[in-house]
Each structure stands twice: as structure tokens, then as C-alpha cells.
Amino acid sequence: MVGDFTKISTFLEIVKQKSFSKASKSLNISQPAVTLQIKKLESDLQTTLLVRKKNGVLLTKDGEKFLQLCTKLEDSLLKFEKQARHIKEDKIPLALAACDVAAQTIVPKILDKIAQIAGTGVDLRAISPAEARDWLLARKCDYAITSEEIDNSLFCYKKLCEYEVVLISNRPCDTLSVNDLLERKFIKDKRNAFLRHFFDRYGASYEDFPATYYLEGALALKDALLYNGAEAYFAFLPRNLVEGEITVKKLFVVPIKNVKIVKKVYVIGLSENKAMVDKLAAIEI
Asked: Residues 252, 271: contact at Cβ < 8 Å?
């Protein structure tokens, strides 16, 4: 085969030494073996590369072309060898997936701490909570930060922090009861499975709260409240995501009587990476 490095090395040594016999000594193989390797190489290429003369060896035109290719190959191999020697020193960024709230409000505050623990940079990708399991299994991310647990022996998870979810409106509103929510116009996050179960304990169904619009992601809900004012709209959003808008009274917190919504955030990884999950979960926020 043309790609046989032994034959190519032999060819290069003959050109360097300008002699079959000297190449034989340099390579520590017999001269007939050197000759055989070149014959096989020329057979593979279906051309003559070298011509023996009394005063040495000459390259044919095809031999000169092949030498140029070999030189390029040799340079590439030297670069490869140099990089391979330092492969352990290369730091691949930690691939971290996070649901939109965590990606926007939690992870940016602790990037230095994560990088310090991992000993490398961080490549952050925003995903929906439902995607965490598949991303981890497909090795598209090393760890996930999400508000949904994954109860499976393949994974391990640990609480990182928690945040408050509040009812937000684009207009001021007095305290409401849970039943009052059935008479308001909501903008809902299609991906938020947490709230579908939360209100069961209050004898109400989140699905029954009237929705004018369905969007995807907390950021989309926040923008919808900010830029659409034809009606008084309501949405459940993380307080830390809208704190600035609340302060300047662009958005308003609406208290719900006897209701406080707290959402936990978890670090999740494959079971084999439990030690790192524990370290990441120990970060103070």
C-alpha cells in the first residue's frame, strides 16, 4: 500500500543518503530488504521513483513529485507528534447544559467557581429541563443544571440552590386568592411542568388558569409582559429574572394569599461523575 510508512521512510532515507547501501546501514536492515521495499512502493505507484547510478541515486520526475508529497507528510507528522505529546496538557472546556432560568440568572454568577473546580473553561448551552437526560446520555454535555430531578440509577443529582417563583403582571394588582387566578389572563410557558403539579395541593389546576398566549421559556414570558399592554396579563416567573423590572415598576409582583412558590435547582451528571457533581453542588451562590 502507498500509505505504508515503512516504505516511505525507506524512500526518504535513500534520498537523504543518496545510496541504497548507506540507507541500509542507517536503517539497520539488509540492502535486499531496502531494494524490495522500493520495488513494492514503485509497484503500488506504478512508476519508477529512483534510478541507480555509479555515483549515487537519482530521482525521476515522478520521484521528485513523490518526494514533495512525502515532505508535506513528514511536516504534518512532526506537527501531529508535537501536539500528541501535549495532549494531556490541553484543557477541553467543561460542557455544561442549563435550563433557561439557570443559564440566565445562576450560572453566569458562578462561572469562575465552576472553572476553578473543573480546571478548565466552561462551554454553556441552554436547554429545556426535559432535554437534560438525553443530552447527558448522548454526551452532548458533561453536567446539567436544571430544576427537574432525574430519578434514574444512571444519573446522580444534588441540590445546588433554590429560587422563588412569583406571579408577575404588567399592571399593579392587589393580593389574589388561588380561585381568583381562574379569572385572570395568563401568558404561559409551554415547557414549565413544575407549575402543573404545584397547584394540586391547593385544590386547583394550573391548566384551568386561562391562557391568552403560550410561549417557550421564561425570557419569552418576561418580554411578552413588558411589550404587550392591551390587557392586564399574568405570568409565573423567577423573581431573580425580573428583579430589575420590578424595581423600576415596569412589572409588578402579585401576592397570592397563603402561597409561596420555591423551585429547587439541581446539578445532574452521570453516576460515574458523582464526585464532580458533589463539588459543583457545593458552590455557594
From this structure: no
**What would the pLDDT profile of 159-213 be if each residue is shown by its tens digit?**
999 999 999 999 999 999 999 999 999 999 987 778 888 999 898 999 999 999 9
Select from 127, 124, 49 the least CA-distant residue to 93. 124
Confidence (pTM)? 0.64
Q: Which residue has the cell 480546571?
A: 119
